[in-house]
Specification:
single chain, 351 residues, alpha+beta, Ribosomal Protein S5, domain 2, Alpha-Beta Plaits, 2 domains, eight-stranded mixed β-sheet, four-stranded antiparallel β-sheet, 36% helix, globular, carboxy-lyase activity, lyase
């Protein structure tokens, strides 16, 4: 008969967690990963991180004995970040005291593609380890599992909190949004059919690592001259976007989406230590896209992450026209394109 410890050392789970693209941007944080404003994002499908987490017997006296592999190779830098995350949140993972953890991680997209890899990575890690904790404790997974995973993922990467839910998700306390919270994201369930099956074509303008990390960018909001007005604007826009999604107002969505993208980069350009992440290809792609929309009347728009790459958003009904335009009209602006779409949230890969 195997002991509990022997059984625990055989535990292995695999989870897949998607990335997401914010429509209303989260930029600025305080305390322990608390956002300065609410945000709202679209969960993706094809851009995901897959994590296999396995327990084994501990062979050292380290507080956290972790082996973290990315694409089959030891990743020391990210391993240290994950080990700190586990140690800081050890009350959620009581098994780390007696067990070594091996994490095998891989992305479905190029690592420096400008897709939020920290969001999908911490999402998948949190799901896998929380799943192990639930299994050890004999707890059933219900809706609160994903809420708890969202809270945990937030502590690793704020945006990761939103990747726990299908379709559109909001994170951050907002007086106008019922059940909203700074600690976890919530799914936005009332969405007009016009916004179902949204597509996201990610134009990789540049595939070099960013010169300024998101963590540094967030910190520059601490003494930003426009910070308070920005946080107020973002909260108002998040609440407004919930109503836009409910009403099916595509024109208002397009305006909100593009204005938020430009506002995010305006915050970077007007920080005390200002910086510029957009590139000539970014500007050219945006200008060509706006001209295409004006001439074709196709409801397509852009957003930007904290980098130079352009996310082109459009309804599935227009994918033929938009993808022809991307493949031909925009071809000289990007190095690569990743065609993605609205996703259904995380998936457990083994039983």
């Amino acid at each position: 008969m195997e002991t509990d410890k022997e059984l625990m050392n055989k535990v292995k789970v695999t989870w897949r967690c998607p990335s997401n693209i914010a429509i209303v941007k989260y930029w600025g944080k305080k305390g322990n990963q608390i956002p300065c404003n609410s945000s709202l994002s679209l969960t993706l499908s094809n851009s995901f991180t897959e994590v296999e987490a396995e327990l084994s017997e501990k062979t050292s006296d380290e507080a956290v004995q972790l082996s973290y592999y990315f694409e089959g190779e030891i990743n020391e830098q990210f391993s240290q970040r994950v080990a700190k995350f586990l140690f800081d949140n050890r009350e959620y993972f009581p098994f780390i005291g007696e067990n070594a953890i091996t994490i095998q991680s891989s992305n479905s997209f190029p690592h420096s593609a400008g897709i939020a890899s920290s969001a999908s990575a911490f999402g998948a890690i949190s799901l896998a380890l929380l799943d192990i904790a639930y299994g050890i404790e004999g707890k059933e997974k219900d809706e609160t599992f994903y809420m708890e995973a969202s809270n945990l993922a937030r502590l690793g990467s704020g945006s990761a909190s939103r990747s726990m839910f299908p379709g559109f998700a909001s994170w951050g306390t907002n007086d106008q949004i019922q059940n909203s919270s700074n600690e976890h994201a919530i799914e936005i369930k009332e969405v007009h059919p016009v916004f179902h099956n949204m597509k996201d074509a990610i134009l990789i303008i540049e595939d070099e690592p960013k010169k300024v990390s998101s963590s540094v960018g967030h910190s520059l909001m601490n003494n930003h001259p426009y910070a308070e007005n920005r946080f107020k604007q973002a909260n108002e826009r998040t609440a407004e976007l919930v109503e836009i999604l409910k009403a099916g107002d595509m024109e208002a969505f397009i305006h909100m989406c593009e204005s938020e993208a430009l506002t995010l980069h305006a915050m970077m350009m007007t920080s005390m230590d200002y910086y510029l992440l957009v590139k000539p290809g970014t500007i050219t792609a945006i200008e060509k896209l706006m001209e295409f929309r004006k001439e074709s009347k196709v409801p397509v728009c852009f957003t930007l992450d904290a980098g130079p790459n352009v996310h082109v958003l459009y309804p599935k009904a227009y994918e033929v026209q938009v993808e022809e335009f991307i493949n031909n009209g925009l071809r000289d602006t990007y190095k690569k394109v990743i065609f993605d779409e609205e996703g259904s949230g995380p998936t457990k890969m083994n039983s």
